[in-house]
What we know:
It is built from three helices and six strands. The chain has helices spanning 2-17, 20-23, 32-42; strands at 44-45, 50-51, 53-65, 68-78, 84-89, 96-102. The radius of gyration is 18 Å and the shape is globular.
Amino acid sequence: MKRMLILCAVLVAGALSAVPAFGHAGAPYRTAQQAADSLVANDIEWDSEIDTVTYASCRGTGAHYGIRYRHFRCYVETEEDDPYWVLVHTGWSEDSIAFLYYD
């Protein structure tokens, strides 16, 4: 019985450590597909305009947990401009986006 309780405690601890997006005090971790979907759903707001994103493809960079990252390099196609690349940093209330270069 005691071994069973120890085994259960180890399994629960392992399961909780595998969910960093909910247990991490910093920015949330997401998959590349979630980052791309967020760009398409929310568009990109610049200082004086909004680019309507029609397509996005992202690749995670830096530290990660499995396939989840906090930083992404994303290729985007918009209705208003030529295709370009952005750097996305995830956030709890909103993501920060920085322009990198035109494709």
